[in-house]
Design goal:
Blueprint lengths: L1 H11 L5 H20 L3 H6 L7 H20 L25 H8 L6
Helix pairs in contact: 1-2
Amino acid sequence: MDGLLAWLLYNACQTVDPKNTTFVMVSLALWLLFTKAVKLLPHFYRYPTDVRFIPVAIIFGYLHGFIKIHALFTLNVTTWGGRDTGQTEEKVPFLQGSSFEAMGRAGRLGQV
């Protein structure tokens, strides 16, 4: 999301003096760095030696964002994962056979 924001801001500054564009982009980078680190300030106040982990926390935030996006697009993929039952798995939609499906067919929960 931050990359998209930077790209949009850069394209919006195409008609501006290049010196001003550089200032705007550096300001955006500093703002993004500040907003990524500000939530950790109480921790760094209590444990000042952990300040060296700020880059790790920022990188983790981005990687965790990619994991959340991947999870969003794979919500409908459900399997046992690590359990080898020796049977071929049947792909079943997420809510098939649940009380939600029964509610859709019967109109009320509990009537199938």
